[in-house]
Specification:
Length: 339
Amino acid sequence: MVENNEVELSAAEAEQYDRQIRLWGLESQKRLRASKVLIIGMSGLGAEIAKNIILSGVKSVCLLDDEKLKEIDLYSQFLAPPDKIGENRAESSLQRARALNPMVDVTAETKSVEALPDVFFTTFDIVCATGLKQEQLERVNNICRDSNKKFLCGDVWGMFGYMFADLIDHEYSEEIVQHKPVKRGPDDSEKSARETVSITVKRRAIYVPLQNALSADWTKPELRSRLRRGDPSYFVMKILLRFRDEFNRNPDPAKRKADTEVIFQMRDELVKELSIPVGFISDELLTDVFGIVSGASAVLGGVIGQEVVKAVSQREPPHNNMFFFNPVKCVGFVELYGQ
């Protein structure tokens, strides 16, 4: 939980964040203003997440990336200018990121996740990780859980994307609408008149670590029943994470034919491994996972940015615990795994 630590907004901040204060209240904005956020991976998705979080008015944002900016990044990474190709992606994004909101302290870290000690990640209130291998994601998630820090991760492959959230034990407030009967005079013939009132209620959500969500037991009837809904997004995510783990990269548009064959083979292996119906994971969904499409990054970046704001401000129900964007159906949806 991020406390506002008696944070007081200056007149300039109150003016800057006036619309947000009207939307979710002064106390929520104070919590945002006191929060420190780490964003791992400055691809197109990382840039979208950074933009949304910086504009929300947090205290500080650290951009972590040890990779160099490539030409292919420019199709979706709008914070790094073209003349920075060959330079570090996090450092290349600093100038434009800082210009989004001068009131937020934006810094860059160029070391790799493996090179950083556990204590580094505990200095932030919330960590958003992209572009990492499954083992790295689970390591950072476990560090966050042990220090009671909130963790989100996500990725975009082509037009497909996912998000996972682990807010541990999260308390939040929610406004609900109730309809109450209105008392009227004895001569009033309208007996069923009602008025609408809004009340704020406190709620609690319990989350599981990423390791649990990725090792969901598909022999359980409640999970097997999901197969009847016909959406294979969870399995597509597992295939693409497995591809990254094995080849230390994402599917490459320059190697589309060879990588597609590998992805299909991994799909067939997963189908046997989890006893999934043959044909459930279609070829169509697995052939559009090359590069990072800016539109998909905008969708996922918007969702992750929204979830960070909700988690820190403790307002409105957060997603628990996975969000998927299926480009074939052009639909996004939330599902719970690992419990």
